[in-house]
């Protein structure tokens, strides 16, 4: 009896200490939490007097299905913070990052957003990837009057007074890419997407645009997230014989789709695809050999030729390894930190309302070129780019919009989009 | 310390419950906005855990599909809140998907009473239906569990696919008002918290009554020997259907409260992983004891939040270690462990008393 007893006791102590470690750790979150994640501000070894420091939140999925994408954005945001701190911080204060894990779970995003705003009292938060995570955080930021910088391209139809959107909205990625295809004479479009909000909304816009401009939607197919068998879809594509497949698949599904497409003997020369969710990081995961020659639409590529981008890519490789690549959402996250810092400097204050007011019209020479904050909808002007994937996994620009495009999340300036945003 | 052992066990239990209730109801006085919100979420999970415990701990039926029942309750409430927030306009996502007027089945959700009733009735009815086809055909054990997983997959696919009617993967979010009051005010939050605490106490009382009644005895009989119970003249199928429906209803209730506090419901929360996590709450707390389900839900949800805040990069490993430790070393969960400790103490005490008695008797003999 006693023999088992001590074992149970040991287990209980172990379990209890795990729970206690969690509870206890919370108290020194500012110092401990940051150092655990290699945050640049941890160097100030616990002497976290609030006088010379300002806290900001970083809220991405560090675990779960979205972590593969979101961790890279977290890294570029931390790098921007480190760079700004090295130059003396903002308003003379060093930025301290409080990193939280959204765990690819939308209620967790809402919970952590509330924690960052009401317990850590952060000045602003950089975070989110999926639309669902942003939709979960939005009410919290509006309620507590917080400030969120959202760095990923999305389906538009939103403009919260408490969010700055530094990724592309539809008229900065999808709409111009369809125009590009129509100009190239590719009129028969096959729409293929994962079954969630972004592809469905994007395809609705594409269908309206094609219908109004002499294009044709030959089919619209959705597969569940994580779907990996594309033989049926590929058969349907062969049958429909489109000029181009517009691909809004996400995550693992892309790996399966492109491998099976190649196995079926279809290369980019036979059938062109345009993807909006495949960036350099994803190319690495799928394998460049399957993607060579296919097109993608973004606002930034690692190869984008600006002096700022050379520095950005170089410092990123130095920080996170020679093998690491940079991508559009990472760049948008990096830019978000700089835009916030610039707005704070201009406002002379960390107060959300003042920062928001000051942010209007702020310009920044980003790796993607000049970006400007649109004061009305809090999106940013961005240059649209279409590129071709090469054997080495890099993307080479084929076309760009010639200059930054004004963000129009509700597509109000397009005649054919009337009724979409009602 | 003598008086402590003299009090009957029942009195101790009552004192314990009263203290727990007092602590729950006074929480708004000493917790900040974020902590109160988190606790409210824990309490909502505790209600699902109670229902699951009735089903799994007391009747021996393992459901890995309770996320669906939870989700149905949550969607019912969310539909009402979404309509209340939009006023006369249709919810925003419907507009993008080309709907111009509210679908007919959304209409009645304008009434809070209807939404609340549906939050309980829909999950229970679905459970009854599934139970009708499984338990009456004597499908049980692993086969039943697999069917509940299938239910999860069907429901999630349906909700994601019908984006125009359900909001798709984004789910329903952006609520502002309930009964015309702003949901974001401090009072509204405190009221919502108190409602959740009251719901948990009520659910606990109902479950306790159920397990102590004749109904509860039959449930345990089914768990320990379904055929024997049948030979005694009971039809296990009806009991199983009933307890499954009650359990689903409790999950629906929890879902309704969850939406009030968290402000979002999406199909991911009905999916397989959250459904399994709900079962883990019961396993960690101690299945077959109602208080264990509650303790498990509160502790685990808190631990998840605290661990992930303190160690954002590797908290999942800590949580995983905790699960392994509990399942390997503490099959009875936390409550099982406490019980064992209590029995060990009692045993030692009685051993001591025996030796004392024997010494006394011996000395008597000598004298």
Explain how this protein is built.
The complex is a heterodimer of chains A (422) and B (367). Chain A is an alpha/beta fold and 422 residues long. Chain A has two domains: 242 residues, 3-Layer(aba) Sandwich (Rossmann fold); 161 residues, 3-Layer(aba) Sandwich (Rossmann fold). Chain A contains 14 helices and 15 strands. In chain A, the strands form three sheets. A seven-stranded mixed β-sheet of chain A has the order 7-6-8-9-10-14-15, with helices on both faces. Chain A has a five-stranded parallel β-sheet with strand order 2-1-3-4-5, sandwiched between helices. Chain A has a three-stranded antiparallel β-sheet with strand order 11-12-13, with helices on one face. In chain A, strand 14 and strand 15 form a beta hairpin. In chain A, helix 4 packs parallel to helix 5, helix 6 packs across helix 7 and helix 13 packs across helix 14. The longest helix of chain A has 26 residues. Chain A is globular and about 65 Å long. The N terminus of chain A is likely disordered. With 367 residues, chain B is mostly helical. Chain B folds into two domains: 297 residues, no CATH class; 27 residues. Chain B is 77% helix and 2% strand. Chain B has 16 helices and four strands. In chain B, the strands form two sheets. Chain B has a two-stranded antiparallel ribbon. In chain B, helix 3 crosses helix 13. The radius of gyration of chain B is 24 Å and the shape is globular. The relative contact order of chain B is 0.16. Classes of the chains: A alpha/beta (422), B mainly alpha (367). Chains A and B meet through helix 1, helix 2, strand 2, helix 4 and helix 5 of A and helix 3, helix 5, helix 7, helix 14 and helix 15 of B.
């Amino acid at each position: 009896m006693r023999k088992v007893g001590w074992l149970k006791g040991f287990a209980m102590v172990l379990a209890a200490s795990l729970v206690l470690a969690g509870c206890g750790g919370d108290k020194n979150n500012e110092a401990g939490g940051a150092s655990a994640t290699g945050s640049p501000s941890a160097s100030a070894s616990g002497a976290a007097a609030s006088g010379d420091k300002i806290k900001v939140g970083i809220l991405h999925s560090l675990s779960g299905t979205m972590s593969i994408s979101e961790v890279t954005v977290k890294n570029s945001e931390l790098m921007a913070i480190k760079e700004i701190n090295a130059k003396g911080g903002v308003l003379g204060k060093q930025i301290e990052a409080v990193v939280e894990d959204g765990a690819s779970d939308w209620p967790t995003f809402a919970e952590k957003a509330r924690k960052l705003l009401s317990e850590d009292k952060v000045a602003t938060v950089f975070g989110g990837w999926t639309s669902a995570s942003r939709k979960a955080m939005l009410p919290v930021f509006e309620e507590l009057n917080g400030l969120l910088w959202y760095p990923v391209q999305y389906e538009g139809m939103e403009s919260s007074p408490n969010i700055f959107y530094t990724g592309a909205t539809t008229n900065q990625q999808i709409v111009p890419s369809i125009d590009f295809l129509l100009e190239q004479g590719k009129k028969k479009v096959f729409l293929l997407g994962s079954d969630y909000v972004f592809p469905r909304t994007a395809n609705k816009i594409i269908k309206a645009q094609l219908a109004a401009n002499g294009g044709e939607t030959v089919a619209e197919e959705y597969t569940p997230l994580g779907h990996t068998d594309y033989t049926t879809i590929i058969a349907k594509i062969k049958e429909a014989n489109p000029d181009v497949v517009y691909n809004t698949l996400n995550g693992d599904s892309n790996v399966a789709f492109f491998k099976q497409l190649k196995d079926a003997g279809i290369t980019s020369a036979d059938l062109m695809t345009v993807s909006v969710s495949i960036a350099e990081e994803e190319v690495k995961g799928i394998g460049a050999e399957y993607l060579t020659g296919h097109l993608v639409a973004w606002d930034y590529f690692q190869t984008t030729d600006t002096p700022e981008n050379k520095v950005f890519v170089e410092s990123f490789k130095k920080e996170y390894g020679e093998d690491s690549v940079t991508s559009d959402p990472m760049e948008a996250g990096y830019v978000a930190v700089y835009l916030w810092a610039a707005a704070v400097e201009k406002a002379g204050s960390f107060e959300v309302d003042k920062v928001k007011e000051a942010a209007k019209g702020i310009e920044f020479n980003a790796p993607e070129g000049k970006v400007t904050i649109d004061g009305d909808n809090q999106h940013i002007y961005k240059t649209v780019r279409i590129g071709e994937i090469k054997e080495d996994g890099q993307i080479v620009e084929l076309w760009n919009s010639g200059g930054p495009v004004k963000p129009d999340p509700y597509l109000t300036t397009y005649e054919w989009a009337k009724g979409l945003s009602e | 310390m003598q008086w402590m052992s003299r009090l009957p066990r029942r009195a101790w239990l009552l004192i314990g419950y009263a203290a727990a209730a007092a602590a729950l109801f006074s929480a708004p006085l000493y917790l900040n906005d974020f902590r109160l919100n988190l606790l409210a979420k824990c309490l909502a999970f505790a209600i699902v855990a109670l229902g699951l415990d009735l089903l799994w701990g007391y009747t021996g039926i393992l459901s890995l599909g309770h996320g669906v029942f939870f989700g149905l309750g949550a969607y019912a409430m969310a539909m009402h809140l979404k309509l209340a927030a939009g006023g006369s306009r249709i919810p925003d996502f419907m507009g993008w998907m080309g709907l111009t007027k509210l679908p007919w089945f959304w209409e009645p959700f304008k009434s809070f009473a209807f939404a609340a009733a549906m939050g309980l009735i829909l999950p229970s009815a679905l459970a009854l239906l599934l139970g009708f086809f499984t338990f009456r055909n004597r499908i049980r054990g692993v086969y039943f569990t697999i069917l509940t997983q299938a239910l999860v997959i069907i429901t999630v696919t349906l909700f994601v696919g019908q984006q125009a009617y359900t909001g798709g993967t984004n789910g329903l979010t952006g609520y502002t008002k309930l009964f015309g009051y702003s949901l974001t005010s401090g009072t509204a939050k405190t009221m919502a918290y108190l409602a959740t605490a009251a719901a948990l106490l009520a659910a606990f009382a109902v479950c306790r009554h159920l397990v102590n009644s004749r109904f509860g005895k039959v449930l345990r009989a089914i768990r320990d020997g379904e055929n024997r119970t049948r030979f005694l003249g009971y039809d296990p199928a009806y009991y199983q259907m009933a307890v499954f429906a009650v359990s689903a209803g409790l999950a629906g209730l929890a879902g309704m409260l969850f939406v009030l506090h968290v402000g979002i419901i999406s199909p991911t929360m009905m999916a397989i992983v959250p459904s399994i996590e709900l079962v883990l709450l019961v396993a960690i707390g101690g299945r077959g004891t109602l208080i264990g389900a509650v303790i498990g839900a509160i502790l685990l949800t808190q631990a998840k939040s605290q661990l992930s805040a303190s160690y954002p990069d590797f908290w999942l490993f800590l949580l995983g270690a905790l699960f392994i430790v509990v399942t390997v070393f503490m099959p009875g969960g936390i409550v099982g462990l406490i019980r064992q400790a209590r029995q060990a103490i009692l045993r030692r005490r009685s051993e001591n008393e025996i030796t004392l008695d024997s010494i006394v008797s011996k000395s008597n003999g000598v004298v």
